[in-house]
Design brief:
heterodimer; A: 277 residues; alpha/beta; Rossmann fold; six-stranded mixed beta sheet; four-stranded antiparallel beta sheet; 35% helix; disordered N terminus; B: 369 residues; mainly alpha; ABC transporter involved in vitamin B12 uptake, BtuC; 2 domains; two-stranded antiparallel ribbon; two-stranded antiparallel sheet; 6 strands
Chain lengths: 277, 369
């Protein structure tokens, strides 16, 4: 296989997570973000920040605004007010593809794979943003095009193996099992070479063993130098996995901190178990 | 059907035979069926060009375009403006054709820009309107100044001149006379082969994957870093450019164009070729173009047959054509929804579905365990 230096980095060897004593860099900062749909306030002045190298959990009851916040951060929705910065660049109200190119990838709550393409092709599409062969290159298929294609192929195979889909590249995405589809979505998102990966309920509908495998994958991704932002309902998984957790309820952030401290927070307990006691 | 399996291991020989067949085809058709059929053959190639272009928009990028013939019209009219007595310009075809393709591509983007947010039926309606607008413009732009000569159409368009030979006239070569339709066959064939080459290269490239992703799921495509606006406009422009090219060739070939050649029916016909043959798959699209050009011509014989048998024409072949198209489309939707020659992926999908159905069957009824 042809070697292209830039794309040959295996995902494992990107860089190790920074040691805890080192001052941490803010990767994503959400400042006072509100989102209204007509009269409905889906997000009400939410602020949070994700540090480089951390797994940040976002939890909250159904309808709390978690996915809305995700969509605001990744460019699917414009924010009504507030600011979102990725490293030092403002990314609120930018187009999704611009945000992806700055290193912020996502997966979807209801899996959105390219169902009629193979698993391998799905991941290859993910390489789109950091490859650049255009029409002329594609038609003439010059040396650079062939090299880039080979590199995309190699990279896609590598990523499939990385998420545990070794040998399944030839299957159509729609024919993979549910768990494999979730993994494929992660591989596809990783192909965009993100610094921060946002996962929207990545273990929904999985059994405990599968959840365990997935959280191992998340740790591996983090160890590879990609920070994670996680929406999850499974409190046990979030508590075991996340460095910090924010809790949303009715569009507001009602708590933030270590999983343990959040668990003890009376506001959180009220939100989850209902008020009035 | 002769046994062709011996060609499987000999791609060179197969290619050579195919090249020989394509070279001799007009003479074989001319001898076997008469010169009128060589003209049909030329139109098969023109429709192939159109179908390949529309396939980029509809088959690859999944944007339903019902006004595609407008780009064909633009290419044809541009050729007529730059190479006919109408404005007194007589530029050579190798200058006019690229300009025509570029103009059509530009209009493709102009059509694409306001429709970026539209999908499916809504996009189809807008593109249909665009196709009609272009035709109606061509029909009415004989005043205030005469741009298109209105419904009378434009006449005396220059034929293609190649190496000092006008392809509009019979060529006397040695003792042989080769009619104009034979000569155009080779020109059209060259452009069609070029279009096939370009379309296939695009399909299996980063751009082609981005189009496929766009067709599958626009939101997810954007989340993969694909600039959906640019990639859509690119699809519209590329498809339209092929249409413009075909239009220019059509104008040169016919020597006469009028708005009547660019009706909605033509757009639908080209779309039918793609759907019938197999959307997104070049061999399928080519097959569709062959079938839908040849069958209507063959149906004309039914009129003659009726006259011979009954002494009068009971069913007009033109009506029969519509009836058969309708039947064919309904049958296609029922039995071959992916087309006669579905694309590689769809074929694999059907195979896999079949396989898994078989497995279910074993699980349900296997009582040995």
């Amino acid at each position: 296989m042809t070697h292209v230096p830039e794309m040959q980095r295996p995902p494992d060897s990107l860089c190790s997570p920074p040691p805890p004593e080192q001052p941490r860099r803010t990767l994503l900062s959400v400042h006072d973000v509100s989102k209204r749909f007509g009269g409905l306030i889906a997000l009400d002045s939410v602020s949070l920040s994700v540090q480089a190298g951390e797994i940040y959990g976002l939890i909250g009851p159904n309808g709390a605004g978690k996915t809305t916040l995700f969509n605001c951060m990744t460019g699917l929705y414009d924010v009504t007010s507030g600011e979102i910065h990725l490293e030092s660049t403002a990314v609120h109200n930018r187009k999704p593809h611009e945000i992806v190119r700055r290193g912020f990838a996502r997966t979807f709550q209801n899996i959105r794979l390219f169902t009629n393409m193979t698993a391998l092709e799905n991941v290859m599409v993910g390489c789109h943003s950091h490859t650049r062969v255009g029409i002329m290159g594609a038609v003439l298929r010059c040396r650079r095009t062939r090299q880039e294609e080979a590199a995309i192929h190699a990279r896609a195979h590598e990523l499939l193996e990385y998420v545990g889909l070794h040998g399944k590249g030839r299957f159509l995405a729609s024919h993979l099992s549910y768990g494999d589809q979730r993994r494929l979505e992660i591989a596809r998102a990783l192909a965009t070479q993100p610094k921060l990966l946002a996962l929207d309920e990545p273990v929904a509908g999985m059994n405990p063993a599968e959840r365990q495998h997935m959280s191992e994958l998340f740790r591996k991704v983090r160890a590879g130098g990609v920070s994670l932002l996680l929406i999850e309902h499974d409190v046990k998984l979030v508590m075991g996995l996340c460095d910090r957790v924010a809790v949303l309820d009715y569009g507001r952030k009602i708590a933030e901190g270590t999983p343990f401290s959040v668990q003890q927070n009376p506001a959180v307990i009220t939100a989850y178990l209902g008020g009035g006691q | 059907m002769p046994d062709l399996s011996f060609l499987h291991n000999r791609p060179r020989l197969a290619l050579l035979l195919l090249a020989g067949l394509l070279t001799l085809l007009p003479f074989l058709v001319g001898l076997g069926l008469g010169n009128a059929w060589v003209r049909v053959l030329d139109f098969v190639l023109l429709y192939m060009l159109l179908a390949i272009g529309l396939n980029i928009v509809v088959g690859y990028a999944g944007l339903l375009d019902l006004g595609y013939i407008a780009f064909y019209a633009l290419g044809a009219y541009l050729y007529a403006w730059l190479a006919s007595p109408h404005f007194g310009l007589h530029l050579p075809f190798w200058v006019v054709l690229p300009i025509g393709a570029a103009l059509a591509g530009l209009f493709g983007m102009l059509l694409g820009a306001p429709t970026l947010r539209l999908r499916g039926d809504y996009l189809a309606i807008v593109t249909l309107g665009f196709g009609e607008i272009i035709r109606i413009f061509m029909n009415n732009l004989n005043a205030p100044f005469n741009l298109t000569n209105g419904p009378q159409g434009m006449n005396l368009i220059d034929p293609v001149h190649l190496a000092g030979v006008s392809l509009g006239e019979t060529l006397y070569l040695g003792g042989m006379s080769i009619p104009s339709t034979y000569l155009y066959y080779y020109v059209f064939l060259a452009f069609t082969l070029l279009a096939i080459f370009v379309a296939m290269r695009l399909q299996h490239s980063r751009i082609g994957r981005a189009w496929a992703a766009l067709r599958e799921d626009e939101v997810a495509a954007a989340a993969m870093g694909i600039n959906t606006r640019n990639i859509k406009l690119l699809a519209f422009a590329m498809g339209a450019a092929f249409g413009g090219l075909a239009g220019g060739l059509f104008a040169a070939f016919q020597g006469f164009i009028s708005p009547e050649s660019f009706t909605l029916w033509e757009s639908i016909l080209v779309l039918c070729m793609i759907v019938l043959g197999g959307m997104g798959n070049i061999p399928g699209v080519l097959l569709g173009a062959v079938l839908l050009t040849v069958i209507p011509e063959a149906l004309r014989y039914l009129g003659d047959l009726q006259r011979a048998l009954l002494g009068y024409v009971m069913v007009d072949p033109a009506d029969l054509r519509m009836l058969l198209f309708g039947f064919a489309l309904v049958a296609m939707m029922l039995y071959r929804p992916a087309g006669l020659m579905p694309s590689r992926l769809r074929k694999r999908e059907f195979a896999a579905a079949h396989e898994s159905a078989g497995q279910d069957h074993v699980e349900l009824y296997d009582t040995r365990a």
